[in-house]
Amino acid sequence: MSKKKVKLKLKSSARKPLIIVGVVLLVIIIILSFYFNRIGELKNLGYSEEAAKNIIFKFKYSYVMDIGENKTLNMAFSSSDYKEENLDNYVKIGYEDQDHLISNINKLLDKGYSVNEVNLIISKGDDKSVSDFVKRDKVKYIEEFLSVDYAKLENLDRYVEYQDKENDDAETTVLYVNMDFDKENYVDPLVIDKFDDYVLVNKHRQLSSEYVPDDLVTIDDEYVKVDEEIEIERNVAKAFYDMAEAASKDGMELMVSSGYRSYKDQEEITNTYLELYGQKYVDNYVAKPGFSEHQTAMSLDIASKSTATFVNSEEYAWMMDNAYKYGFILRYPKSKEDITGYKCEAWHYRYVGKKIAKYIKENNITYDEYYVMFLDD
Ligand SMILES: [Zn+2]
Fold first, then answer.
1. Ligand 1 center to residue 266 CA distance, Å?
2. Do 295 and 201 form a contact (C-beta atoms < 8 A)?
3. Which of 7, 307, 327, 354 is the most exposed, having the fewest neighbouring CB atoms within 10 Å of its CB?
């Protein structure tokens, strides 16, 4: 054996493992770049890092790329509650920002609810009400009531009960129950502590003594018809001045006879009337403390400078045609006593802003209805 041959043999046996290592490294690099490329693509579609990893490890990359962006899928793949057999359904269920969304979807599907029903249940509830709901046996009438835009999952049993009694259609039933028509006036009201421009006050919704407006101003003397200072929210005062100015161009003289009344003011008024006229009168004509819209500082009692009875004045007729242009609505109209719970008050106006005032006028509805349909959450 020559020296040369031995040398060559050594060389080739040392080269082989190097090649293998090289090839393995190359394959790893290709796989990794493939992997990171796919993670990147999924993240571009709005999937989280965690969801993207799970999508790849569960071999659902192509499936998800076909679907594209989908927040419910993203949450499913990020969740330990993910169930492969529900994958096609997750895609069809609208995302809601609820902590137990995926686990609740699984439970609802397990109970035999259709995808449409699951969609309605989770979109008309919140995390708590849905989580409570999934513990119950399967419930009927989901589509009938929860298809109504402003339906609430938490009120479902009340809808069923109310319709059973009143026989109204589903939409009316949902509207009326959301307005608490299935409860007695003043019994178990919702109590509101925090100031809100759009707050709704009625016989089921009470302002607490803590409820205080945030920016009161005093109405200019020239517009005040009574012998006292009248305070009101700053933006309401501004809208009133605009309206009064426009009215005066038409020869009308709008005045104010009442504005903000605190919880304590209303308590005193109630007591005065109680002594003068007794309980029955108070129950019928005087708002109990916390139930007066004047505590919102968003309501004004309007008067005419020349006439004592506002309902007979030219100013009243002018207000009927024009108040909405300045953001005011007649809060207790004659034809709506069943809904507002108040006899018509021709003088009492609520400021709701121009957009809402216009809608309410055009659709001939009350603020109670508007609030339940568009502002209540
Ligand atoms: Zn009033």
1. 12
2. yes
3. 7
Q: Where are the domains of the chain?
A: 190-375
Q: Nearest to residue 376, comparing CAs of 199, 162, 211?
A: 199
Cα separations in angstroms, 301 against 136, 195, 197, 329, 332: 49, 20, 18, 12, 12
Per-residue pLDDT of 61-100, as tens digits, reads: 999 999 999 999 999 999 999 999 999 999 999 999 999 9
d(CA 293, CA 368): 12
Rounded mean pLDDT of 246-274?
Answer: 93
CB 239 within 8 A of CB 327: yes
Please tell me the distance between residue 301's alpha carbon and the centre of ligand 1 in angstroms: 5
In terms of Cα–Cα distance, which of 200, 224, 195 is closest to 210?
A: 195
Distance from residue 291's CA to the centre of ligand 1 (Å): 12
pTM: 0.83
Strands 205-207 and 190-192: parallel
Residue 365: which of 339, 327, 326 has the closest Cα?
A: 339
DSSP string, 84-143: GGGHHHHHHS-----TTHHHHHHHHHHTT--HHHHHHHHHTS-HHHHHHHTTSPP-S-HH
Alpha carbon of 375 to ligand 1 centroid (Å):
23
